[in-house]
């Protein structure tokens, strides 16, 4: 079975000639959508934990988190190189000197060959781009921008407090500094039709973006989305509908774009719905089977 999309493992092997794994690190960051700068409520799908592990709050340094991750992932996947993935909240939202120290700590760990930095498009200033551009001279640097949708009405509905134009400007700034950009999108956002979601794919397919992460919108405890769900104002996608949407989404992307994720990983103890989102391997198999059955592939309907 040939690979019908450009996955992250293939990309890393082309770059480094060996197995490379991302290690999630928690830098104890916050977000302007939570600290009161823009809002104190956050996005409707995000709770106070964000996507973090809480490791920083438990006193674990970046270096220790990476060391523990290396041991685990080298044993499980035989990985030889690693990327430090700053995941939780907005990891460019801080003083440039403090951020420089965190990034340097991560890159100072043996066999860590790069950084992947999750953030918002409105949290990347010229000094931070200069910093990351300098690091990109010697290390692989990815900026992962949370976009979720290209539709401003949707962004307002989910309380993002930034526009698509802000995202486009952030992409331009990152690319001028030689940085790789990965866009995060969510399928199943309130009010969006299948065509709305595919329009996001069409627009991203025409941008200077090197990667994409596709997520399912799932409902977690302690969010505004949970309230909407329990009141009957939001219905989750079925597993079958999601798998089909992912296939159609992939068809509209550039074949050179690295598909870093095809679905999300909810914390089981926080998940409200849909229960099938915990069956990740089953969902991935369904997506791949759909691609095979329909003779589909990434870029099939891409127009460049």
Helix content: 25-40%
| Percent of residues in beta strands | 15-25%
The helix-strand sequence is: HEHEHEHEHHEHEEHHEEH
The main pleated sheet reads as: 7 strands, parallel
How does the overall form come out from the CA principal axes? globular
The N- to C-terminal Cα distance equals 26 Å
Q: How many H/I helical runs?
A: 10
Beta strands, count: 9
Residue stretches low in confidence (pLDDT < 50, at least 5 long) are: none
Mean pLDDT: 95
What does this structure look like?
- It is built from ten helices and nine strands.
- The two termini are 26 Å apart.
- A seven-stranded parallel beta sheet has the order 1-2-3-4-5-6-8, sandwiched between helices. A two-stranded antiparallel ribbon has the order 7-9.
- The model has no long low-confidence stretch (mean pLDDT 95).
- The protein has 304 residues and is α/β, with parallel strands linked by helices.
What is the strand and helix layout of this fold?
Blueprint: H1 8-16, E1 20-25, H2 62-77, E2 81-86, H3 96-107, E3 112-119, H4 126-135, E4 140-148, H5 152-157, H6 164-176, E5 180-187, H7 194-205, E6 211-216, E7 219-220, H8 224-230, H9 239-251, E8 258-261, E9 271-273, H10 280-293
Parallel strand pairs: 1-2, 2-3, 3-4, 4-5, 5-6, 6-8
Antiparallel strand pairs: 7-9
Helix pairs in contact: 7-9, 9-10
How is this structure best summarized?
The protein is of the alpha/beta class and 304 residues long. The chain contains 10 helices and 9 strands.
Structure keywords:
37% helix; 17% strand; 9 strands; 7-stranded parallel beta sheet; single chain; 304 residues; alpha/beta
């Amino acid at each position: 079975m040939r690979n019908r999309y450009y996955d992250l493992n293939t990309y890393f092997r082309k770059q480094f000639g060996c197995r490379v794994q991302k290690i999630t690190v928690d830098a104890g960051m916050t977000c302007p959508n939570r600290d009161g700068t823009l809002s104190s409520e956050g996005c409707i799908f995000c709770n106070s934990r964000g996507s973090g592990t809480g490791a920083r709050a438990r006193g674990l340094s970046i270096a220790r988190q990476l060391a523990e991750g290396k041991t685990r992932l080298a044993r499980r996947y035989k990985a030889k190189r690693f990327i430090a993935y700053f995941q939780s909240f907005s990891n460019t939202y801080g003083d440039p000197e403090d951020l420089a120290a965190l990034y340097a700590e991560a890159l100072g760990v043996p066999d860590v060959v790069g950084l992947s930095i999750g953030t918002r498009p409105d949290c990347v200033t010229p000094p931070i781009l200069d910093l990351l551009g300098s690091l990109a001279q010697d290390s692989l640097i990815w900026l992962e921008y949370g976009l979720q949708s290209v539709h401003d009405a949707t962004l307002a509905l989910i309380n993002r407090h930034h526009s698509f134009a802000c995202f486009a400007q952030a992409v331009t700034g990152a690319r001028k500094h030689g940085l790789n950009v990965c866009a995060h999108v969510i399928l199943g956002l309130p009010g969006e039709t299948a065509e709305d979601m595919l329009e996001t794919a069409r627009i991203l397919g025409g941008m200077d973006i090197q990667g994409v992460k596709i997520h399912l919108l799932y409902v977690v405890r302690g969010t505004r989305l949970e309230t909407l769900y329990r009141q009957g104002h939001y219905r989750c996608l079925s597993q079958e509908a999601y798998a089909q949407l992912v296939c159609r989404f992939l068809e509209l992307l550039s074949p050179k774009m690295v598909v870093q994720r095809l679905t999300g990983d909810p914390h089981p103890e926080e998940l409200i719905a849909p229960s099938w989102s915990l069956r990740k391997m089953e969902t991935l198999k369904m997506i791949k089977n759909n691609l095979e059955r329909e003779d589909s592939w990434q870029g099939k309907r891409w127009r460049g």
